[in-house]
Design goal:
Helix content: 25-40%
Radius of gyration: 21 Å
Strand content: 15-25%
Number of helices: 12
Length: about 350
């Protein structure tokens, strides 16, 4: 099939694009001209897998790795082994080079005004929750699960969990407790972080009974942390108690393929099936999609669904699409828009 493209970026935008900058970097690194366009880079990436991915690693300034090891040590599928001997942490990369005074998240919900959280405050809360999880016995490889809407709290809980090398999974409060149970019970989680109320399409929803049933179905839980009304959940810890500390954030470096989060299939053809993503792959994917220009705003118009909105996605909800430019004026910092009710836009 031939024809004209529906749209092409203006030459000035192409010249400033991250992929163009990477092509220049790779050309200098290899001594070959790789600036001939996307196909030129693609052909190199499949012809020299080790050279391409090693260049990607170094271009983004990721932690030093053993140079005697190839980027792809084992090509078998399943069973491929990427970046053996390398160690990193998703949370460490999220906070690397951030200006504490800059805006990290703008949360927009149906029932409140937009809330901004700075990188410094986000770091403090993540460190505090990580310290609290450690006190609760959470160790690398343990699972922490969230029954939460897309929210600032979900971002904090996610980053705190993975900073320890523990594994995150989330199910939105637009799901019933039984739907959350079908996913979380497979993981044998150590800690549950949850809300007891939700707002969907302007309608308040009480999830107290769902939370109670969910806790009863998860016998491995050592603790439950409640965001909104801890007093209504026997034995639960309040969100304020785990976020009030002033610990130092020290993300644990883990192997490239160490589990980061578990997503789940829809469950329409049987029990939902877990899909594990590792730190390294998600870090590379996130960096490749991140805006190159300082001050750019990443907007996420999705509910948490099967993942959490880490701080390159947004979170929260809105009954109508907000004017993003009005929410975050100026371009002095990197910001993340949190927007959407699960019933406000298309569910895809």
């Amino acid at each position: 099939m031939t024809g004209q493209p529906l749209w092409a970026p203006p030459p000035a935008e192409t010249e400033q694009a991250r992929i163009t900058e990477f092509a220049r970097y790779a050309s200098i690194r290899t001594g070959h001209d790789l600036t001939g366009g996307y196909r030129t880079l693609w052909e190199w990436s499949v012809r020299d897998i080790d050279g391409f991915w090693s260049a990607v690693w170094d271009y983004f300034g990721l932690p030093a790795r053993p140079r005697e090891q190839p980027a792809l040590a084992t090509e078998a599928m399943p069973g491929s082994v990427w970046f053996p001997g390398s160690q990193l942490n998703y949370a460490a990369e999220v906070f690397r080079g951030r200006d504490d005074a800059g805006t990290a998240v703008v949360a927009v919900t149906e029932d409140s005004a937009p809330v901004e959280v700075s990188w410094g405050e986000l770091r403090r809360q993540v460190a505090s929750v990580a310290a609290s999880l450690t006190e609760l016995g959470v160790a690398p490889g343990d699972r922490v699960v969230g029954y939460l809407p897309n929210s600032v709290e979900a971002i904090v809980a996610f980053l705190a969990t993975v900073s320890l090398g523990a594994v995150w999974a989330v199910c939105g409060t637009d799901y019933t407790g039984s739907a959350a149970q079908a996913r979380f019970a497979q993981l044998e989680p150590t800690v549950l972080i949850t809300d007891t109320r939700a707002v969907h399409g302007g309608r308040p929803v009480d999830r107290g009974a769902d939370v109670a049933a969910l806790r009863a179905a998860l016998p491995t839980l050592a603790a439950t942390v409640v965001i909104d009304d801890a007093a209504s959940v026997p034995g639960a810890l309040s969100w304020s108690s785990v976020t009030s500390g002033h610990a130092e954030l020290a993300p644990a470096r883990v192997p490239f393929d160490h589990p980061l989060w578990v997503l789940f299939s829809s469950g329409t053809t049987g029990r939902p099936k877990g899909i594990v993503h590792g730190h390294g792959g998600v870090v590379l994917e996130a960096l490749s999609k991140a805006p190159r220009r300082p001050g750019s705003v990443s907007a996420d118009c999705s509910g948490p669904r099967e993942r959490c909105g880490p701080p390159r996605d947004g979170s929260g909800s809105s009954t109508s699409p907000p004017a993003f430019a009005d929410l975050v004026p100026g371009e002095a910092h990197t910001s993340l828009i949190c927007t959407r009710s699960p019933h406000s836009f298309d569910q895809s």
